[in-house]
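R.M. (postdoc): so does anyone remember the format we settled on? I'll just put the structure tokens first.
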């Protein structure tokens, strides 16, 4: 039977976050908060693409490792990572040591800057897929949650066309949830109203 982390404050939360303390903190302070900052978007793109085939909990536990290994998520620096550094990263246990995902992060940094050049910012580009404001879902249980939406399908298709890698519709939707393009907190979660704008 899966253990759940006991939170002392008794606030109602989305059940998915009750695995460990950092997960609860992430849920309570970050997940679903609308993001307009390009660097934060890039951070989540790296983390979400690294997650493919793994749990978000695994990535969250390695987040500081990623922060150090990927230049505090500075896309301009990441875009210039040489092959010698890729080989160093493959020896770094603080991140997911998958050569395709590491190379995808470098590739995606370059694509990210091309999007910025075209749209003025990555934020402006991505928010265009939801009409510039968060979509407020009204989920009463986790069983109602979707893995993809028409918006994530369109965004993933467009990202692929622009050369991005490891960002299929499921991964893209996870990014859109994390960065507040969708408010997918359960309606009885205390954060649902807090992140609603």
């Amino acid at each position: 039977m899966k253990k759940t982390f006991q939170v002392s404050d008794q606030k109602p939360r989305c059940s998915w976050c009750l695995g460990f303390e950092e997960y609860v903190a992430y849920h309570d302070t970050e997940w679903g908060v609308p993001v307009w900052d390009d660097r934060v978007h890039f951070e989540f793109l790296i983390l979400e693409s690294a997650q493919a085939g793994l749990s978000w909990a695994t990535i969250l536990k390695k987040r500081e490792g990623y922060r150090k290994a990927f230049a505090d998520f500075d896309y301009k620096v990441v875009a210039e990572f040489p092959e010698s550094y890729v080989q160093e990263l493959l020896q770094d246990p603080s991140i997911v040591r998958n050569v395709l995902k590491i190379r995808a992060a470098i590739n995606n940094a370059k694509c990210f800057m091309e999007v910025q050049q075209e749209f003025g910012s990555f934020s402006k580009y991505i928010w265009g897929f939801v009409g510039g404001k968060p979509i407020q879902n009204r989920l009463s249980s986790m069983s109602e949650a979707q893995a993809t939406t028409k918006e994530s399908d369109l965004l993933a298709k467009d990202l692929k066309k622009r050369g991005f890698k490891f960002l299929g519709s499921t991964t893209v939707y996870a990014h859109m949830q994390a960065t507040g393009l969708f408010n997918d907190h359960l309606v009885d979660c205390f954060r649902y109203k807090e992140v609603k704008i």
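R.M.: ...and that's the designed sequence above, right after the tokens. Also worth knowing: The chain has eleven helices and two strands. Residues 15-195 form a domain with the Endonuclease III; domain 1 fold (CATH 1.10.340.30).
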